[in-house]
Each structure stands twice: as structure tokens, then as C-alpha cells.
Amino acid sequence: MSIKPRTPVPALTLPIVGGGQFALAQSVPETFTLLVVYRGLHCPICKTYLRDLDRKLGEFEALGVKSIAVSTDTQERAEQSKTEWGIEHLPMAYAFGIEEARRWGLFISAGIKDSEPAHFAEPGLFLIKPDHTLYAASIQTMPFARPLFSDILTAVKFVSENNYTARGEA
Known about the structure:
Shape: globular
Number of strands: 9
Oligomer: single chain
Structural class: alpha/beta
Number of helices: 4
Helix content: 25-40%
Strand order of the largest sheet: 5-4-3-8-9
Low-confidence stretches: none
Distance between the termini: 15 Å
Radius of gyration: 15 Å
């Protein structure tokens, strides 16, 4: 199942590394919530990707965007990712259930190496409006070819300056 732009996204409440929780229903950013689903600790591409977002977090915040990274990893694996990858500012949520991930339209993979969980969600990036409807999404079947955060920043600036409506709803 995929979520169409301009329609509500599924409810989502997850624990965050370091304590507390992320509740999408309580996230009311000025512009967007940027929800980035990453594969988990076993993924070296995710490390590079999230480190880039962590470095650009201030730029996103200046545009009114609240960002969160989410995975199907356990608390222990998510904590290890945050520490070993040097993620300093980006909130990282964990315990995103496989069935929840499917409701978001994500692809699910079965682990093929000892370092991988039995099942995990493949990457997804969602820009969610303050009214909790989907503005845009990018969903991958594997770790490669994800949108660059510099491109997302440019897009958010353009969208904001031009009141550009969500597309892809037909």
C-alpha cells in the first residue's frame, strides 16, 4: 500500500535514542516533518546518509523543517548506530514495526548476513505537512540512489517560496 500526496499519513509513535518518544501527531513544524527511514546499524550507506543529514540539520530547521531518522532496529542497535556513526543532533527513533513500515508503503527485506536483522525496512524519505498529510515521498527497494539532502533543502526552499502544491495524488 502506498500513501498518496495530500492524504493523511499513518499514525506513528516511537521511542527515541536517549529517552522520550517521537509522536508524529504532536509534530507541528512550520513547514514539514522530514521522516527518514534507514535500514539500520548493518548499513554503511545509512551511516553516510544520516551523518550528512546531521550536518545539515540546522539548515533544515532554519526552513521550518523538523527531522527524525527511524529504523526497525532494536533500542540497542539504534543506540549503537547513533554512537558509532557520530550522530550528534539528529533524533533517532527505533522499534518501527515491520507491519507499520508496510503501512507507510516501504519495502521489507529479509536479512542475508549475520549482521542483518531477520527483517528490516528499506529506505524511505517522507516530507509531511503540519496537517499530517503527505507532501512528497521517495521509497527505495535497496540502499542505493537516495535523494540528496542538499537537493531536499533546495526543494523545500522552492516549495515554500512558491507555495508549490503536492503532486502525485491522481
